[in-house]
Design goal:
This protein is mostly beta strands. 9% of the residues lie in helices and 39% in strands.
Length: 655
């Protein structure tokens, strides 16, 4: 028969030894402060934050082998595939303030035949190969002396791509400004002109031939006509990676010598103008002027060019609109009285893939209630960047604003988003976007959702209420900042999960939520600081049963008046430090769960894995503070346990 007394005494002795190990290890890692200094909160904050916020590691995300997300090829497809790529303009389509220029010189040079000149041919070519032997670069120049200087202009270069070797290849072409003289009758590879090292523009060569390719040359042309640079034109090169299986990757473009003038290169220089739209102009005529505005927004967009403004007068426009052109300003007269309602398409306003510089402002944007396939209010299609979505009312959509895939440097500002399933969604690989000063409420799921390899985004000064999750961050995210937001009456105020790396959650007001901040699974190097976290059921909840969290710091927060689940609940998370916070008037200030064994089944030497130090506790009754929790195994924690803040602050911090 098993001697129960012996089992009990051995278990008790083991527990005492574990407590001793942990107490000594925590004590050695804490900052020891004399009584006369411990009340000096400014001294504490300066020194603690300096010494205990770990330096950022190298920016290599540590992946986990059984990580559940995989890149899906569908991510690379446009949001709306059924819209054909616009085959850009025939020169006769340009009207208004647009001027057309044709090349004075265009040709190509080849590395494999370095002394040969091709100036008389009716095509030029761009090519590369794995070993670099078959490199072909193309050169173009235009005479722009007839343009008056100091004009606000926009300019694009168009070339017609009609044939290629290895059809279906995908390459990136770069266009560089040339800085020395050349002419098409004498230039060769061996005497090719010099050019700058930074491209003026790049483009992705499409799979299909028989299309116009375009380069934005606005800055170069402005500098040419203002005399800052001498106009020697441009050189086009294939700088993209070429695999060892590719002997030759080559495209062919018609030159100025081609007999059909519809397909030769040209440069469009546009002085911006305003095109008007008014739904009251039912009977026409319609030419986009203030006297005879277009009746439909899409007609205005189809007749604009780079830099133009489409100004939409108050009214109701039952249409879905697509912005094909760059630097277009789509402006409504009044966001309260200018309505765009989609009755049949997935979107209300769509910025087409690879378009950039659009501004969408001053509208109420919604899906018709009978639109069965309606989805998104404003969608930025893949590779669309530098756009402004500002000062709109976006209501009754499934997704209010969608950044579909690989959208960088966009600004989502000052919008009101109501009655959607998701307010703003950065869907995948979205970098350096700013989401600020938006009001988002009465949303079924996420107010703002940032997912799948989205990095360096800033979410600030938003007011988010009555959602399932105010701000949601998920799946391989790097260096995102969530600051100065008001998150109120949501189930989750902020929810971060799965390889969220180096996140900063700072200076937010988080109040009246079920969970103020909810952190779960693999948070690598993060800080929660400077927040007002009050009147939530649980202020901060942190959990990681994978044992993958590293260097997570919770400091300098006011954690007050939180209810049943308390100020902070740490659930199976290691490498977490909680310091210099104010815990005031919470139902429970803090609690935790921990385990004897780690995720891999090995003995966990430091079961007190969360370190607590120098916090202010309003219910402190001695010289140190006991945090009560439980210990056990991953799915059962039957034994009571303690953590200790050995050096609590004697006065609350001024946060």
């Amino acid at each position: 028969m098993v001697n129960q007394w012996n089992v009990f005494t051995k278990t008790l002795l083991t527990g005492v030894i574990i407590i001793f190990i942990n107490l000594t290890s925590v004590n050695s890692s804490a900052i020891i402060i004399n009584d006369d200094i411990s009340t000096n909160n400014e001294f504490l904050l300066t020194n603690l934050i300096t010494r205990h916020i770990n330096e950022k590691p190298t920016e290599n995300i540590e992946l986990i082998e059984n990580y559940p997300y995989k890149d899906n090829e569908s991510n690379y497809q446009p949001f709306e595939k059924i819209i054909p790529i616009k085959n850009h303009k025939n020169v006769n389509d340009f009207k208004g303030n647009s001027r057309i220029f044709y090349p004075t010189d265009d040709t190509y040079i080849e590395k494999s035949n370095p002394n040969k000149n091709h100036g008389s041919l009716n095509y030029f070519s761009v090519a590369t190969s794995y070993n670099g032997y078959y490199d072909y670069d193309s050169l173009l120049r235009f005479n722009l002396s007839s343009i008056n200087p100091h004009k606000e202009i926009f300019a694009k270069l168009y070339i017609y791509y009609y044939y290629c070797f290895d059809k279906g290849f995908k390459a990136e072409y770069s266009l560089y400004r040339v800085v020395s003289d050349w002419d098409e009758d004498n230039v060769t590879w061996n005497n090719k002109p010099s050019y700058v090292s930074t491209p003026t523009d790049t483009l992705i060569v499409p799979f299909d031939t028989g299309v116009w390719l375009e380069f934005d040359v606005t800055e170069d042309v402005r500098n040419f006509i203002d005399g800052k640079y001498i106009n020697y034109g441009w050189i086009i090169s294939d700088d993209d990676y070429c695999s060892q299986w590719t002997d030759l990757r080559q495209s062919f473009i018609y030159s100025k010598e081609f007999s059909n003038g519809k397909f030769i290169p040209y440069l469009v220089v546009n002085e911006p103008e305003t095109i008007y739209v008014d739904d009251d102009n039912v009977n026409g005529p319609w030419n986009g002027t203030k006297e005879y505005p277009f009746q439909n927004i899409q007609d205005g967009l189809d007749n604009c060019f780079c830099g133009d403004t489409v100004y939409v007068l108050n009214g109701t426009y039952n249409e879905s609109v697509v912005i094909y052109e760059d630097y277009i300003n789509l402006i409504g007269e009044s966001k309260n009285d200018t309505f765009i309602i989609s009755k049949k398409e997935r979107w209300v306003v769509l910025v087409r893939d690879r378009c950039y510089g659009a501004t969408i402002s001053g509208f109420t944007i919604s899906l018709d209630s009978n639109n069965a396939k309606g989805e998104t209010g404003i969608a930025l299609d893949c590779y669309s960047y530098d756009n402004y979505v500002t000062d709109n009312i976006i209501v009754n959509n499934i997704i209010g604003v969608l950044l579909w895939y690989d959208n960088d440097y966009n600004f989502i500002l000052n919008n009101t988003i109501l009655n959607c399933e998701t307010g703003i969604w950065l869907r995948g690989i979205c970098y350096y976007n700013i989401i600020s000063n938006n009001t988002i409420k009465d949303v079924d799921d996420e107010g703002i959702s940032i997912t799948v390899d989205a990095s360096y985004n800033v979410v600030s000064y938003n007011n988010i209420s009555n959602t399932e999750t105010g701000i949601y961050l998920d799946c391989k995210l790097l260096n995102n900042i969530v600051s100065n937001n008001l998150l109120k009456n949501n189930y989750y105020g902020i929810y971060a999960t799965y390889l969220v790396y180096d996140i900063s959650i700072t200076r937010n007001i988080i109040t009246g939520n079920e969970y103020g901040i909810y952190i779960v699974l693999c948070i690598l190097y993060g800080n929660i600081s400077g927040n007002e976290i009050n009147r939530n059921t649980c202020g901060i909840y942190c959990s990681d049963y994978w044992d993958a969290t590293k260097n997570f710091n919770i400091y300098n927060n006011n954690i007050t008046d939180n209810n049943y689940k308390g100020g902070i609940f740490i659930d199976l998370m290691k490498n977490c430090e909680v310091f210099c916070n104010n815990f005031i008037n919470n139902k429970r200030s803090a609690r935790f769960l921990t385990c004897f064994l780690d995720y891999h089944g090995f003995w966990n030497y430091f079961v007190l894995r969360t370190k607590w130090f120098n916090n202010y506790w309003d219910d402190l009754k001695g010289s140190f503070y006991w945090i009560y929790g439980r210990i056990g195994f991953y799915y059962a924690h039957p034994f009571p346990w303690i953590n200790i803040d050995w050096h609590p602050a004697k006065e609350p911090y001024d946060i």
